[in-house]
Amino acid sequence: MKKKIIIFVLILVFILLVVFGVVFSINKAKENQMQTIKTFYSYINEQKYEEMYEMLSKESKDKFSKEDFVTRNKNIYEGIGTASLEINNLEITEKEDNKINLSYKEKFYTSAGEINLDNKAQIVKEEKEYKINWSSKLIFPELEENYKVRISTLRGKRGSILDRNGKELAYDGSISQVGIVPGKLGDNKEQNISKISELLDVSVEKIENSLSASYVKDDTFVPIKKISKNSPIKEQLLQIPGVLINSIDGRVYNLGEEAAHLVGYIQPINEQELESHEGQNYTSSSLIGKSGLEYAFEQKIRAIDGAEIYIEDENGDRVKTIVTQDKKDGESIQTTIDFDLQKSFYDQMKNDKGFFVVMNPETGEVLALVSTPSFDSNDFILGMTTEKWNSLNVDENKPLYNRFKQSYCPGSTFKPITALIGLSEGVIDSNTEFTYSGTSWQKDKGWGDYFITTLTQYNEAKNVENALIRSDNIFFAQLALKIGEDEFSEKLNELKFGEEIDFPITLKASQYLNKDSKFTEAKLANSGYGQGDVLVNPIHMASIYSMLVNDGKMIKPYLEFKYDNKPEYIKENVFSNEAIEKVKTALLKVVETPQGTAHDAKIQGLEMLGKTGTAELKKSKDDTESGTLGWFNCITLNREGGNLLIVGMVENVQNNTSGGSHYVISKIKNVLNK
């Protein structure tokens, strides 16, 4: 009996082992079958199309060559921007002999968004390996072998940049594409190409290369160059046989050179920008703001392009839309800029190296920002030649250099700040007089052969008002020494020296000392009248001057228009009201009285306060090449239509016959006289 039980147990174990083996074998086979599909699709993420081809059955390889298979899969998957493809819900649905049918769900991302679809595949066993019976339906179920997958971009419209009155500074409009239809060039082909070359400033060689491209036929429109819609050469071009001009979409800058540094320009996104904006719906074909307001307001005005992926049959008819991502137009931005003021101030400065900052002193609205010499923002849209780009970069006048973003030695325009510090801190009052004579002075013999010099000797009392009217360097050098470096530094820090001003366009911080530098007596004295290491950004300067008409409040400048133009302030109560009134009165006399350094700025019927400044950039007393900056800062007080605070500067005024800051005064006066 015991022996029978042992035999029974052994038989039972054997049966269980057989059953287990069969089940294991079946499960293992099923696992291999499913893994075949998973591996095949995983190669798409890695762009290993040749490895995919090796997984095809003999029957499929007989139908499709390796080259055709690789080309079709590569073009489709990469063309639509496939990423992160996943296979889920994989099931065996049917078995027939050595053929196994499977169903599954695909999920992947494309340039037009996420795609989810149900699909089917068939695998066969060949020499102990599972192979795939492939057709184009494994890409998309509706895709026949003679069908094509298309992707089209749905272009969003970038928001416009408007001035305060709604005039367009930048907008998506139309430009002209000049092209040639080769078959219509006529018998004088070479002569006509030469004319086109001359008018468009495109070499004959480049035109002929375009015309000899493999796709070109006699009736093909061959694009040569983009030009502005209102270009004066259009009529001349259209008189040449073979020339055709089409209208195409493009960014248009109504103030090209006049506002290039302010408005900026857009260009195709580069690889570094694409990486830094990852996850923000930028693609390799996106346009992005590169400078100025186009850059500052990028996130508001940018358009997000849409896209759609669809299947097209052999007749070019749409069979099925796979996925659509809607486009999103950008938001238009209305700025505080006045179109006409911007143009007027540019026209005055266009032949010089310099800048203008024009602001409403009571609200902080920036009305104009001019930097010269300039460039034309439209050139970046129409297509800039390498020669043109190189010429802009090597031009010694630096047309690409945005001057109103920088900081400069302010010269005597800094003296009102020193006066405000001295008066507010009680170091002097309006009756305090300093004792010196002549046009040169030094504190003591310890200064060696170094002297502070001033231009004009005068007999009136050496007090703060007369020193501002006469622009007396010696007075403000002595005042700075009397204030002392600690108090001087503390007050300038309160005025945000050493800090970037909050402004849409990044501005260089103003400073009163170079990095790792310290005050000496001579340097502190020089700083009192805006020399030494003092550098001031002109927009920051405008903000400081606004205190003179805002009860000592330092206005915050802004560029985005708001109907409730309630002012905001960077700083309040830096200086006493009494100090503000005394300096304001003195600066009125700088313009109003005949002895004032800016008396030539006076306009009948217009009240104005102002301060001239001539900043020498000498690196040593023997330096004759570094040049001189001419400044004029002014505020109108009874101007019809609103008062203006203007900060202007021209480089190298030593070359101008009108002399120093008076060259700048003449330009401002020309605009105000309008």
Q: What's the shape?
A: elongated
The biggest beta sheet is recorded as: 5 strands, mixed
Give the full name of the CATH homologous superfamily of the domain at 405-672: DD-peptidase/beta-lactamase superfamily
The CATH architecture term of the domain at 405-672 is 3-Layer(aba) Sandwich
Return the CATH class of the domain at 405-672. Alpha Beta
Distance between the termini: 128 Å
Kindly report the CATH topology of the domain at 405-672: Beta-lactamase
Broad structural category? alpha+beta
Question: Can you count the helices?
Answer: 22
How would you summarize this macromolecular structure in one to three sentences?
The protein is α+β, with helices and mostly antiparallel strands and 674 residues long. The protein has 22 helices and 23 strands.
Description of the molecule:
With 674 residues, this protein is an alpha+beta fold. Among the domains are: 31-145, Nuclear Transport Factor 2, Chain: A; 405-672, DD-peptidase/beta-lactamase superfamily (Beta-lactamase). Helix content is 32%, strand content 23%. The chain is built from 22 helices and 23 strands. Strands 6, 7, 8, 9 and 14 form a 5-stranded mixed sheet that branches. Strands 16-15-23-22-21 form a 5-stranded antiparallel sheet, sandwiched between helices. Strand 6 (161-162) and strand 7 form a beta hairpin. Helix 12 (339-349) runs antiparallel to helix 22 (662-672) and helix 15 (415-424) runs antiparallel to helix 21 (577-592). The model is unreliable at 18-26 (pLDDT under 50).
